[in-house]
Each structure stands twice: as structure tokens, then as C-alpha cells.
């Protein structure tokens, strides 16, 4: 029996509510369309990477000779080894989805090398974290200084090692590599010994740092071994700060780093299925409904500058070039899948399908390959794509995986019945029933799908066809004969009969276009046709850094921000907005001078996905106001040489943040960081044009409570005005700002540091 199926049975047992089971990726093959193209393009990207370069951080830490130098970018600047874990997962799942033997060869080789590193270390540990042994020894001794992304001034080490845990699990589950299971168990045992001396409070302090789904992987270890200490550890390393708020049905997500939270909740849900703890599962559902319903935009993504924005204000997302992060949707799909299988509720598939088509599919370049980190909804902006030899971001790691597993939920099953969940051209082999099903469809370009059954013998079971939330006038025919539709949208239509060897099911429906407004109730809306988000190419100008170099911030666009006031707006009566778009082709529409098409088709261009809607009067008033605000904001950006948003993960990493006895948070719609010791940042003063540092805080900055050093010398204060202080910059290419607390008191909550070329 397939490993995944065994795990599903272990997870779900025989409970009445948990009948739904996934098919193994080996049982499903894509046969055409955009998803198969994405899979093929991803395969080329996977094969373009060098396993020895990805293994180098592990060999370095184990003290073994290198076979190749490690990759640069994030793989040699603190997050060393994280792509290696993702790569194991991608190899395993792509092998399961395609049967490509080169993938299996690479996977087996990497696991063997990791086992060699583990043997050299001698205690079960294997990792690529810089100075890993020294780092973990400090943690073992209870020497813990953690913030949201740094632990003992090390970049998200638990997040990093979680990728290896997950990669080893996937190597065993999807590709049957027995050695991977042995290495995984050894690593898990090492971790249990690592945290054994720590109190519950100390463990929770460690978990303040981004740690991926480390609790989920210990639940997986329990599934694989039946050893209860792994399940106990999974519960012990579940982050109580988030869990407790979810148990109380409280939304405390605003301002939190989004992708730090989602994997924790996947762990909560898996632990719930193993323990029967309905409270934890209810907490996971509460989180899912909150994020999918109030924090996600039309294409399924969430967050701005990697953090959850207020549910009643998406304005920063509309303005930012750092829109929803692809990793977030990667994990929201994993959570949606887990809840769907647990609850057998196709409502989860409505979101899953929306994010799959519009975010995941759009996040890879369909010809050249390359993965997207941020997908801005700012009008007339664009996305950046990774390259195999230069880009080692988190969204490259999850991106490698995203396009390997499109077959995971096209179909599912109970003990006897089949469920058709997604309209994607594919074949299914259900060996236990002697069934081969071939789905022929060109959806979303044609609103029809044909399902051809091939059976070794006639047999009775139900084929359950998902009735999508967006489908209109659903028709189902068996061998050309119309069937009674006994379901409603977001349910299944069940056809229970004795199926013959060559029966054919035809599914037909209609789709319509509607406007979907941002969850904050503002006047920004996107055109959505069925489940497909439509957008317009607006320009191919100034696409600076379209394909990323190896710079630290290569994943962020560098091109000009076009004023939001210049974007196309829908002006007039609201009941006429939809009637203004005219079909001009297959899923293509005209909107005055613009052409709307599926967002996932738009690449190498600036685009507009969201449109402001106005009456004529409000349009005239708003345009004048926004033009002035935009001009002021753009003028400030033009004067800015470099800036740090304090308390935000990526800007702090990018500016070499260091600190002791420091905290961060989110208040008054701004992130902040303070300290009772010190914090420091490095700012780049390109061509030495920066003349002034402007430091903003949420509290008054009092001279006696804080001091400032620039390149280790006392800073010259030019002006101090309540919550803003201005310093004279030093004439160096790199400026290190150190902020020091006085007398052990907390400094003000600093929110932003700007290096300006004038006042």
C-alpha cells in the first residue's frame, strides 16, 4: 500500500466525519494545459540546480570536504541550507508526479550525503546553519535571545532546519527513500534532546522566532513511528501565543509576519487529527476563515511587506510594491488541503482553486521559468522572477515545490466512492478499484469537461462531481443522458450507479464576470470570471530587475512606481461597470482601451488587477486629493537614499540588524522595535549622497533615554521634534547606526529610519 495512503488511514482512522482521502501523486498524471506546462517548466528549473552546491552548507557544518562551493544569495548570507530542504521535497514530489528517474537519482544521492553528514556529527544532528553546533549548544544551555526573525543573532534557524525535516519526510513519503526516514528519526531524536533541559517558558521564547511548521514535522514523525514522544514534542513546540488567541476566537493577526503564522496552524490541525482535540481543529478553522475571508485579495494572496495588514484597511497593499508573498499561498493551500481532507467540506476547495489558478500558477514564468516573491496589486506595477544560479529566496524554495504537486487534489476518494474536485486535464489510476479515469478539458477557456471511465469490470459506486461556488446552470450527463442535479454550489453532485467499462460523464456549466471588492469595503475591485481573476497589461516600460540578480534584495522590483492616480478607474453608475467589458476572444475582454485577460497569462509587463470605482462627483474630488498625497509620497521616496522599516522582517535582515534585549510589534498601523540594550542597522549610502538620517518613533524621543552612534562615533543631532529626530549622516558608503538604551530603560518604539540626500 502506498505510504501516503497508509498515513491517510492513520490520520483519519475510521471516524465517520473523516472519510475523505487523497490519491497518491503517483496515481495522477497531468495530460495538458497550463498546469502541465508549469510542471514541465519547473522540472527544467529543478534540473538546472546543482545538488552539490545545495549540499555544501551541510558539508561545511559537518567538517567534510566540499564537492562544490555553495550558492550565493540567501544560501551564503545566513539562511544557508534552507533551499536544500525544499529541494528534497521538490525532487520527491516531482518524481512522484512524473516518474522521471533523474529526479530519483538526485534525491537518493542527496539523502546519502546528508546521512554522511549526520554520521560525522555523531549525535543525530545535520544542518546547514552557519556555526550551527555553537548556535544549538547555546540554545541547549538556555541562552536564548529571540525576536520575530532572529534567534541569538542567527537568521530564523528553526525555520531553516524545518525545511530539512520536511524534505526528509517528503523523500520518504513520496519517493519511498528508506534512508531518509532513518536520517529524519535521528534528527528528531537530536532535537528532543536539544530542548530537554528547557522549561516550557524557554521553549515558548524560542518559538517567538519564525520556525516554519516544526510542530507539524514532529506530528509526522509520530505517524511514521507510532512513538508517542514525537506527538508529545509536537504539542510542546506549538506556539501558545498564537494558539491561545485562536482558541478564544480572537483575531490578533494584524501586524504579524504572515508566513510565520500559517505553518504553525497547519501543525495545529495535524495534531488535532491525531489527538482528537476538536478545540485545536476549531482554532485552525477560525484562522483559515479569517485569512481566506477577511485578509486575502481576489487572487488568493495575503499580506503587505510580508505582514498581515488591518482587515479594515488595505490601502498600504494597494500602494506597496511588496504585495502578497507566494510562500503565504503555498502554506494556505497546504492548510486548505488538510482541512478539506479532515472535514470533507468542498468549501475549502473554492479558496484552494482560486489561489491555485491565480496566485500559484501566475507565480512562475511560463516560458523562461523563475519564481515570484511579491505579487503587487499596486496598479501599473510588475513582478520579479528568480533565476536558478542567482536567487535563493524562500519563495524559490516553496516555488520549486508548488508546481510539482498539481495532481494532489484533482481527485479524492472515500473507501468506495470517487470525488472529482478540479477541472484539470489528467488521468487517474485507482488501482484498488481497477479504474482508470481520463479527464479531457480545456477549462477555463471552455466550460466543459469530459470524464471517460475505464473499468476492469462493471461495479457500483458514486462519482461525486464538485459543484463550484462560481458555476451557473450546472449540467451533468452520463453517456449523453442528463442527470438530476441534487447538489448546490460548494457541494457535490453525486451520481451513484453501476458503472460500465466505457461510461462517459460530461460536465457543463456557465460562468459570468463579477466585481470583487477588497475585504476592507473600499472602492477597489477586481474583475473575476468564474474563478479566474482578470487583469490588463498596461506597459512594458522600466521593468528594472525583471529577472533577478544575486543581490540581497533582488526579489523586489526596482522600477519606477507610477502614481496610483494615473491608473484606469471605473467612473459612473455601479450597475454599469460590468456591462462596460465586452468579450473579444476566449477569456479576453475589452475595457475601453484596456484588454482584460487571465492574470496568470500576464508576464514581462506591468499590469492592473484592481480598479477604483467612483461616481463622477466622488472621482473628481478624490483625484485631486490623491494626486497631492501621491506627489508628496513620491517626492519623499525620490529624496530617500536608503530606509529601514523597523520591526519588519525583511527590511531588518536586509540592513544587517543586530540587537540585544529587543522587542518588536505593530501599533498605530506601524511596525516598531525598541530595546533595553542596543539595536543597530547598516544603511547603504550609495555614492555618499546621503546627508541626513531621519528617525521616526511611535513615542517621544528623549535625549536622556537613548543615544545614537554612527560608525561607532556619537552622532550629531541636527533637530529633535517629539517623535522625530534628525542626525547628520557620516560621509561613508556604509553607515552603521547603533541605537543604545540608557540606564536600562526601554527606548522609544522606533518605526522607520530614512537616509535622505537633503532636508
Low-confidence region ranges: 1-18
H/I helix tally? 20
Secondary-structure-based class equals alpha+beta
| Oligomer status | single chain
Termini separation: 70 Å
Question: Percent range for helical residues?
Answer: 25-40%
Backbone shape: globular
Largest sheet: 9 strands, mixed
Beta-strand share of residues = 15-25%
Please tell me the overall pLDDT: 94
Overall radius of gyration? 26 Å
Number of strands: 33
Structure, briefly:
This protein is globular. The chain is built from 20 helices and 33 strands. Mean pLDDT is 94; it is low at 1-18.
Describe this structure in words.
- This protein is α+β, with helices and mostly antiparallel strands.
- Among the domains are: 31-206, no CATH class; 513-630, no CATH class; 641-756, Jelly Rolls (Sandwich), CATH 2.60.120.260.
- The protein is 35% helix and 24% strand.
- It contains 20 helices and 33 strands.
- A hairpin with a 2-residue loop joins strand 3 and strand 4 (154-155).
- Helix 4 (82-98) runs antiparallel to helix 5 (101-121), helix 7 (157-175) packs antiparallel against helix 8 and helix 13 (258-275) packs antiparallel against helix 14.
- It starts with a helix and ends with a strand.
